[in-house]
Structure formats: C-alpha cells, structure tokens
Amino acid sequence: MSIARAEVAHLARLSRLALTDDELDHFAVQLDQIISAVAHVQEVAADGIPLTLHAVPVTNVFRDDVVVPTLGPDKALDQAPAVEEQRFRVPRILAED
Amino acid sequence: MDDETRPGGAMPAPDGAGQDRASQGQDRASELTRMTAAELAAAMTAGQVSALEVTDAHLGRIDGVDGQLHAFLHVAADSARAAARAVDERRAAGDVLGPLAGVPLALKDVFTTTDMPTTCGSRILGSWRPPYDATVTRRLRQAGVVLLGKTNMDEFAMGSSTENSAFGPSRNPWDLSRVPGGSSGGSSSAVAGFEAPLGIGTDTGGSIRQPAAVCGIVGVKPTYGGSSRYGLIAFASSLDTPGPLARTVLDAALLHEAMSGHDPCDSTSVDAPVPPVVAAARQADVSGLRIGVVPELSGEGYQPGVLARFSEAVELLESLGAKIVEVSCPHFTYALPAYYLIAPSECSSNLARFDGMRYGLRVGDDGTHSAEEVMSLTRAAGFGPEVKRRIMLGTYALSSGYYDAYYGKAQQVRTLIIRDFEAAFEQVDVLISPTTPTTAFPIGERADDPIAMYLADLCTIPSNLAGNAALSLPCGLAPEDGLPVGLQIMAPVLADDRVYRVAAAVEAALAQRRGGPLLDAIRGPAGLPAPGIAETGAPASGAPGTGGSSI
Q1: Full set of structural domains in chain A with CATH
Q2: Mean pLDDT over residues B98-115, rounded?
Q3: Which residues of B are catalytic?
Q4: Which candidate among A73, B209, B279, B312 keeps its CA 20 to 30 Å from the CA of B256?
Q5: What is the reported pTM?
Q6: Which residues of B, range 356-395, sit inside 8 Å of A by Cβ?
Q7: How does pLDDT run across A47-77, given as a tens digit for each residue?
Q8: Is B467 within 8 Å of A55 when comparing Cβ atoms?
Q9: Separation CA B109–CA B120 (nearest Å)
Q10: Nearest C-alpha in B relative to A60
Q11: CB atoms B392 and A44 under 8 Å
C-alpha cells in the first residue's frame, strides 16, 4: 500500500490546501507511512459485520417545531472577514470568461 | 531524573512567627491554590474565605508560573473576578448555590465563550469571538464556577502533546522539558501546576486521559453523549466527548455532575440521567467487584516503570477485595489503525467549514484570486502540519475506490471492538490497563514523527470507538524517570459511576501508603506552592531522586 506524490497533490487540491512543493514532498512520505500503518484494519476478518457510525446510537431525535430567536444579521456578520450590503462579501466564484 | 535538575520548591515553609503581612498573604494564597475544589467549596460555604479571594489566589499563581507552564492562551482576570464577586453577593444574599460555586476552573480553548477569544489552538480562527456560549460553558457559569481563562491545546484537538498548538507547547509541571500530554495539555498543566483546581478537556482518542496520566492528575472521558458537544468546535463528531480534569477523584466527580446531562442542542446527547458519580466517588469501595485486566493493552513497547506501577495497582485492587481476572479483547490491537481512519475522515468533513468566507482568517483576497483560491490559501496559511495531514488522510479514506477498504473496514472494526467490550463486561464490572504506554516524553521528541505520536493513545482509543466511560488515575511514579504513571479504568456505557468508585478506592489506598497526594512529589522551577510538604515534614517517599519506590 503506497501513495504517490502526485496523489498527495490531488488530495491537497480536493482538501483546498495550497501546499508548497516542500510540503508536498514531506507529506507524501508521511502519508505513505501512515496509510501503510492504518491499512492493518484490512487484516481483520469482518465479512458480514455491520458498520458502526455512532457507538451510542440515538434514533429519531425530534423537537417541537417552535420558532426561537436566531442570530440577527448584525451579529451574524459581526465576525466576517468582509461584508457588503448586509451580506458576506466573497471573492469571485466564476471564471472571467 | 534527580533533584539537581529539578530545583526544590520555591515557596518557603510558613513558620507562623515573625512574618509580615505580605508573606502571610502569600502563604494563605499558596494554601488556597493547594486546596481541592471540594475543600474550597466547603471553606466558602462556611464563610472562611470569599470566592474573590480564592480567584485572586489562583490568578496570582497564574501570574507567577504561567510564564513557565504556558498552560493558558487567555487569562480572563477581570471577568473571573466579576464572576467571583457575583457568587459572593449571591451567597451573602442567602441564595442556595451549587456545590462548585466560586471554584475556579481552566477551560480548554475548544469551547466557545462569548466573552473570551476561542482559537482551538489554531491561527485559522484569527481573532474570532463566538456569538454564543457552548453548553458546557453555560452550565459552568450557571453553577457559579469561575472561568479563569482558556487553556492551550493541540490545534483542533489533534495531538498528544500540545506541540501542535499554533501558539507553542505547554509544559509539564513535573519537568518543564517534557510535554503535558494532549490535546487537553493546557488544562492538565494548569491543574497539575496548581493554577486551577479544576479543568475541562475533550477526549476524542484520549485527549483527557493521556494528559491527566502524564501530569499525575485525574481525567475522565464520560460516556459519549453524556456531556454536550454544543459549542465544542468539532474534530470527530462521533468520538468527541467533553470531560473533567482534577487533582482528586471526588473533584472530578463534582465537575462531571455539574457539566453533564441531556442537551437538546446536541442531537447525539443521551437523554438519560447523569450516572451517580459523586456518590460513587464517596463510596470508594471495590470489595466484591470483578476487575478485568486486558492483556492486549500491555507488554511489548510499554515502558517498564509503567508496567511495574500498573502491576502494583492490580495487586492493590486485589488486596482491597476485588476479584481480578484476565479478559482478552482481541480486536483492541486494531483500534489504533481504525481510529486513524475514522477520526481523520470525520475531521476532513468537519474542518471543511473553515473556508475563510464567514469568519476567521482570510488570505489572498486581493482581487486577483478566485474564491476557491482564497479558500486554499487561507487553509494553507491557517492550518498547521498535523491538521493538514489528517484532512488529507481523511479525504483519501473517503475517496471513492478507497472508501470500502479503509473507512468502511474501520467502521466494521469499530463494531468488533464494541463486541469485545460487551463480551468483557459480561464477565467483569470494569476493565483496567495503563493509560499510556510511556510517561511524559520530551518536547520535540515526536514532533515530526506522527506515528510515534499516535502511539501515545494506544490504550485510550478503544473506549472512544466504543463510547464507554473511562478514567485515568495517577498510580505512582516510574522509577526510571520519576514521572507519573496513569491507571485507566473502563466501564460500560452509562456506568460512569463505576470508574469513580474504583478510582476513589485506589486513590485512598495509595494516599495512605504514600502518606499524601502524589502531586506533593513535584519538584520544579514552576515553584509549586509547597507548604503542604513542609508542614507535614514528610516529603513523599516516591519523590524524584528517591528511586520512586512507592506507588
């Protein structure tokens, strides 16, 4: 089980992490070691064993459909890096062309 | 390690004669910082001391030693004093107060606080000020607990040493060159360093129990869902569990009760009564209990002194009337690899929210970069190496083509580990093991070796995967380095009271054998408030430099 540098670069892109070449070199070696170590789970005979998502399961957690106060726009925008016209201002999301 | 490398306690013994008022005040402050939460609460109830005086004593202690311990990221002196004054006023007005009213506490910086910064040990949150209090924060305030400030932690609670904090590591009061454990290492350092009698941590893979073990204090991971995650910045949502750190089992139980209980704001919160942990801590009796030793959590790779102290603890339990049996949990061997697939997978999803758009850091927003580029630049600048590793590992494990082989398989192993616990608890009431394979390691030793760092959680992870209650109790010092060893006690889901019952019995027996609390053995430049040692004239026989012969 091993992971190539190109695959780590792909993971970094998927993870929205702008890594430097040095970081990619470093992480590629470490992730390869970690993935080899965690791959030991594949030794376990687990055919037909159900998956556990939550160890202490709770099901159908409902609450009454009651309107409660929420953060107002001032409070919600209070910590934003950039605000415009009572909205979060974000960089362009579409390409120029 | 001998006494030469650990200068003796800096505080002079109070001789009660010829002292000026200032030194008497200092002695009284030292005395207050050495007291347990239960003792402080009793003294305040009896009118012997005010909450303000208690708070000031601890703030003074923080002033004196936190430059060395670096347990706190933020000290909230003014709001702490205001909270203490409010408790004093309510008490004077005859209000009925909770059992921890006026007791100071160190809060891990993973919980949101409206009146203090909340960094999670990361730069990506910038100067964020949360718009709401976590449920844990709110409950502590309502109980009259005085929040002294926010404690250091590994970034987003990922780590076992606090070295992954963006703001530098905390130090272990036993030896400032060593880690205090992690990720709740700021809270463990503060409690062991007498900066606060109580601390709150979170335990995802051992992040309360491991720092408690290596700092020589008590730490508890309650049953998953027993304490609310609302306002706890998420790392791995199916594992994250808030819990108490304290210097005694009873103090941990008092805090456990104050912070726990069903919370409608957390959809995984268990709607069940809080187990009777305080009554169990007072019961402190193991006669007739069946206690299982897990052979898979022992042996090769464990420090000899850790195993020696653990064996002595087993013998002690037997002498106290418990029935000891060996109980194999064969899938525990696979807990660590399963955890390092499940936790990173959940983290890669949870940490996607840090995108630089709505709060916190934003990098590269200069008009030349797209939103996606700004996200990538922000996350690259805001996250440290361990967080980046885990996000990419989780992204890998969740990728199509790898999902079944890694994440799916890990979830099956999780089921098998739960079955191991269920089978074991049919035979015994609690399971025990060492809390950690080694004592506190030197700062820097594992900082760039992720796999070595992950091994620190070898014994603690099974209880996170299964969601059951587990506690770490100091059970002596390892002879080879004079550092604390932790005894882990594990009980079934919602049987949290059992871990307290066993721990309190061991604590009482060890204190009797040792002649006092283990923390009396600390020597160090943190200058621990030492009157306890000097007054009794009986330094603990297990102190560093004496060969650590007692447990």
Answers
A1: 5-43 (1.10.20)
A2: 98
A3: 108, 183, 207
A4: B312
A5: 0.92
A6: 356-362, 365, 367, 369-377, 379-380, 383, 385, 388-389, 391-393, 395
A7: 999 999 999 888 888 888 999 998 899 999 9
A8: yes
A9: 5
A10: B267
A11: no
